[in-house]
Prior knowledge:
It is a single chain. By secondary structure, this protein is α+β, with helices and mostly antiparallel strands. The chain has a domain of 26 residues. Helices cover 18% and strands 15% of the residues. The chain has 2 helices and 4 strands; from the N terminus they run H-E-E-E-E-H. The strands form 2 sheets. The protein has a two-stranded antiparallel ribbon with strand order 1-2. Strands 3-4 form a two-stranded antiparallel sheet. The longest helix has 8 residues.
Amino acid sequence: MGAVPKTKVSRHRRGNRRQHQRLDAPTLVVCPQCTQLMRAHRVCKSCGSYRGRQVIEQSSQSESE
């Protein structure tokens, strides 16, 4: 026979166990180069800079068309 609970787990105890399983919204900061919202400690998607340096070359929209 497998593992069987001895007593019923109450709604409160079950909720306390699950309270850390929620989804949190990502923390956004303002990019110092282009003032767009970006995730902290990551490359800015709009300007391609990270910690004051240009890391990714951003192509303009006119070149892609």
